[in-house]
Design brief:
Blueprint: E1 5-12, E2 15-24, H1 29-40, E3 46-57, H2 59-75, E4 78-82, E5 84-85, H3 86-94, E6 102-103, E7 107-108
Parallel strand pairs: 2-3, 3-4, 4-6, 5-7
Antiparallel strand pairs: 1-2
Keywords: Phosphoprotein
InterPro entries: Anti-sigma_ant, STAS_dom, STAS_dom_sf
Function: Positive regulator of sigma-B activity. Non-phosphorylated RsbV binds to RsbW, preventing its association with sigma-B. When phosphorylated, releases RsbW, which is then free to complex with and inactivate sigma-B.
Length: 111
Amino acid sequence: MNINLDVEVVEEDQTITLTLRGEIDAYTAPKLKDALLPLTKKPGAEVIVDLEQINYMDSTGLGVFISALKSTKEYDSELKLIQLQDRVRRLFEITSLDSIITIESTVRGGN
């Protein structure tokens, strides 16, 4: 069974919000990367990724966010993750990525 990933992008001046729905894994990570990386290459942009409706993410997804973070450093933009469900947030904590990627403190329970 292949769960899809829906990506919605809203641009308002220098703030770009990506709202994601579904799962981030080896099958859907390329779609996320194609949507996210070009946005991080806009100098001065604040890229906000809303993960509230992501109920599963594996290491492939972490790799995409690491690539995006590197890109923000190179292009002087900013990456922020918001509304992570507990299980997704734990992935960032276990790998210590929460110390290098800005994650909004709001935590959502996973049902």
